[in-house]
């Protein structure tokens, strides 16, 4: 049995539009790396784009159907006053993007920032 590889895509920025690029990169990566586990981690004010009705619902749904994880930074959500129940269905929360990204990289995950 082979070890499953993980790719982390870090979407950071003040513009929620950064999510569009990160989701596109994740979907493209899933075609080239079909056996890899892919997780998009959104940090900073861009987490507002993960709120249901923020304009990215269809893009998020397409990405989540592709077995790609999308996670919001809990610290960023707190700063932006966003509650977990406001997020688009399927989006998860990590307490701290920085800690999550570091721990996953130490465990062998590849990292890309968009």
UniProtKB/TrEMBL annotation:
<dbReference type="InterPro" id="IPR027396">
    <property type="entry name" value="DsrEFH-like"/>
</dbReference>
<protein>
    <submittedName>
        <fullName>DsrE family protein</fullName>
    </submittedName>
</protein>
């Amino acid at each position: 049995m082979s070890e499953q590889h993980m790719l982390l895509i870090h979407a950071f920025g003040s513009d929620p539009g950064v999510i569009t690029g990160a989701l596109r990169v994740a979907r493209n990566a899933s075609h080239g790396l079909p056996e890899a586990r892919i997780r998009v981690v959104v940090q900073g004010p861009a987490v507002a784009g993960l709120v249901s009705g923020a304009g990215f619902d269809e893009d998020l749904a397409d990405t989540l159907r592709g077995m790609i994880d999308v996670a919001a930074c809990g610290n960023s959500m707190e700063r932006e006053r966003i509650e977990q129940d406001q997020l688009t269905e399927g989006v998860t929360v990590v307490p701290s993007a920085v800690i999550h990204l570091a721990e996953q990289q130490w465990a062998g995950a590849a990292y890309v920032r968009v």
